[in-house]
Amino acid sequence: MPPFHIRRATPQDASLVRQLTRAAYAKWVPILGREPLPMVADYDRAVRDHHIDLLYDGGELVALIECIPHPDHLFIENLAIAPGHQGRGLGRLLLTHAQCAAQTAGLAQLRLLTNQAMTGNVRFYLSAGFTLDRTEPFRGGTTVYMSQPVAPP
């Protein structure tokens, strides 16, 4: 088996998705003064209703991407990297995976949102080719809406 393996999450994976997401976003709690929304999401429902792909390094779950297809774009709901694996390029690998999924589905754009206070995330997405579309107030902070065109096949 190659070192990296991606597979679609099943309903039995909901607790793994929850655990990885909570660990990945925990560093933002002191900055936001609350748990980020992905930490409190209903992953039993999300695994059923969204496309969640799990990235394994050997047998260890190290990252995931949760996407929601729309008629004209693929929305990235959650990109979570296990704390001990951040900075290894796994986020970019999963964004490339999302680009391929959008291409296959004939979608022209990737979209996502993040909290402006999560400055590392904003910088990461900008460096990965996303553009900042707009911002708006949300729960005492600011939501940043971003998009990226899907490369033609």
Folded structure, characterized:
This protein is α+β, with helices and mostly antiparallel strands. It has a single domain, classed as Gcn5-related N-acetyltransferase (GNAT) (Aminopeptidase), CATH 3.40.630.30. It is built from five helices and seven strands, in the order βαααβββαβαββ. The chain has a seven-stranded mixed β-sheet with strand order 1-2-3-4-5-7-6, with helices on both faces. α4 (about 90-105) links the parallel β4 (about 75-80) and β5. The chain is globular. The mean pLDDT is about 95.
What labels describe this entry?
153 residues; alpha+beta; Aminopeptidase; globular
Portion in beta strands: 35-45%
CATH architecture: 3-Layer(aba) Sandwich
Return the string of H and E elements: EHHHEEEHEHEE
The low-pLDDT segments are none
What is the β-strand count? 7
Helix content: 25-40%
The helix tally amounts to 5
- Secondary structural class: alpha+beta
Radius of gyration: 15 Å
Distance between the termini: 27 Å
Biggest sheet character: 7 strands, mixed
What is the CATH third-level topology name?
Aminopeptidase
The CATH top-level class label: Alpha Beta
Number of domain units: 1
Q: Can you tell me the CATH superfamily?
A: Gcn5-related N-acetyltransferase (GNAT)
Shape: globular
Question: In what order do the strands lie side by side in the largest sheet?
Answer: 1-2-3-4-5-7-6
SSE topology:
Elements: E1 4-8, H1 14-25, H2 29-32, H3 43-49, E2 51-57, E3 60-69, E4 74-81, H4 90-104, E5 109-115, H5 119-127, E6 131-138, E7 141-149
Parallel strand pairs: 4-5
Antiparallel strand pairs: 1-2, 2-3, 3-4, 5-7, 6-7
Helix pairs in contact: 1-3
